[in-house]
Amino acid sequence: MSTTRNAAVWILSALVAVSAMSCVSGGVTDSTPTSLAYLNVALKASSLRVGEKTVGSVIFKNASGISLSPRAVSWASATPAVAKVSADGEITAVGMGTALIVATSDGKSGAASLIVDAADPNAAPVASITIAFDLYGFHAGDATVVSAVARDADGNIVTGHPVTWETSDPTVATV
Predict the structure, then answer these.
(1) What pLDDT is attached to residue 150?
(2) Is 33 helix (H, G, I), strand (E, B) or coil?
(3) In whole angstroms, what is the distance from residue 109 CA to residue 131 CA?
(4) DSSP secondary-structure letter at 140?
(5) How do strand 38-43 and strand 53-61 relate by DSSP bridges?
(6) Distance between CA atoms of 77 and 88, rounded to whole angstroms?
(7) How far is CA 112 from the centre of its chain?
(8) Residue 168 — left, alpha, or beta (φ > 0 → left; ψ -120 to 50 → alpha)?
(9) 83 within 8 A of 116, measured Cβ to Cβ
(10) What is d(CA 80, CA 99) in angstroms, rounded to the nearest whole number?
(11) Which of these, 165, 39, 3, lies nearest to 112 by C-alpha position?
(12) Residue-by-residue pLDDT tens, the chain, 175 positions
């Protein structure tokens, strides 16, 4: 009987202690959950010309709208013919139109729009492009610098036309 009474007193004491702690702290618990509710995606520039670049950034928010610590993000373009996005959020305008840039983290996604216009309309038309390699005859694992010079029909160097680099076979060479 004494054991039952001691257990009851212990339980009652524990309840009083918990209740007292709630009164002292106002019954407030941590109201900043770390669970991601949504992402705010922003672009450094919301409009570009073909060939220009910008970067995306993300602010992570909980259900109360409080900012959370950074998390891993995957980037994508819903319109890759207009804009391409690298793994670190660098965006390159590759064609005219509107692109939706999407960031995803912890199963949640956010997006921002990017408008891409044509290259400089005042630039002279390009008739030819000369490509030069810093190193010729390189081997697997080597790196080289490649440059391009655009010329008009008279052989004059023209500017205002961004150059976009890509490889036809990424297993052979990367850009």
Answers:
(1) 83
(2) coil
(3) 40
(4) T
(5) antiparallel
(6) 13
(7) 10
(8) alpha
(9) yes
(10) 8
(11) 39
(12) 444 444 434 443 433 333 333 334 343 333 457 899 999 999 999 889 888 899 999 999 998 889 999 999 999 999 999 999 999 999 999 988 899 999 999 999 999 999 998 777 777 788 888 888 777 677 777 777 777 888 888 888 877 777 777 777 777 777 7
Alpha helices in the chain (DSSP H): 2-24
With beta carbons less than 8 A apart as the criterion, state whether 125 and 118 touch: no
SS3 13: helix
Half-sphere exposure of 82 (CA within 13 A, CB side): 17
* Cα separations in angstroms, 118 against 15, 31, 49, 83: 71, 49, 5, 13
Among 154, 113, 155, smallest CA distance to 130 is for 155
- Report the distance separating Cα 12 and Cα 92, nearest Å: 66
| Cβ contacts of 100 within 8 Å, gap of 6 or more | 77, 78, 79, 111, 112, 113, 114
Chain-centroid distance of CA 16 in Å reads: 51
Contact between 91 and 21 (Cβ < 8 Å): no
**Inter-residue contact 4 to 28 (CB < 8 Å):** no
